[in-house]
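Lab notebook page, bench 4
Experiment: in silico fold of construct C2
Operator: M.H.
Input chain length: 172 residues
Purpose: comparison with the prior construct
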Amino acid sequence: MEYWDIYDKERNRKGRTIARGTTLNEGEYHQVVHICIINSSNEMLIQQRQPFKEGWSNMWDITVGGSSLAGESSLEAAERELFEEIGLKVDMSDMRPYFTVNFTQGFDDFYIIEKDVDIDSLILQYEEVQRVKWASCDEIKRMIEAELFIPYHHSLIDLLFAIRKSRGSHYK
């Protein structure tokens, strides 16, 4: 059973946890992380979720993602999710999220890693991931339109590719 810390709207831990699947009360939030790996060919490593996975089964998704477990920081959750889902150990200790998207029930931190990864060397978590591949920004948006990819906003996908070379809202 997974347990999550509960946060207030200012992202302060409230000192309580809930079991995954428990309905949050109004004013309660949890923390989610997404990690995007983009290679030197300007492609993102994407994963296809297992057909038996609850929520978005068989759909393609960005590299990895999931909820932070109780007691974990966002960064610790990001490192854990990378290792659990695709067997990739990355030292992210000097990183922080590129941005956070607030959603109805929480905070979704997005990390971007620039790395050429040999996908044949990855160890996919059977419970989560059926396969991985590299895809361009345009290919991901076509997959979203074809309802093969989780329906992220196209602008979010564009932002993930565009912001990776810089920090903040300006490019240089």
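Observations: The longest helix spans residues 74-86. Residues 95 and 101 are 17 Å apart (CA to CA).
Next step: discuss at group meeting.
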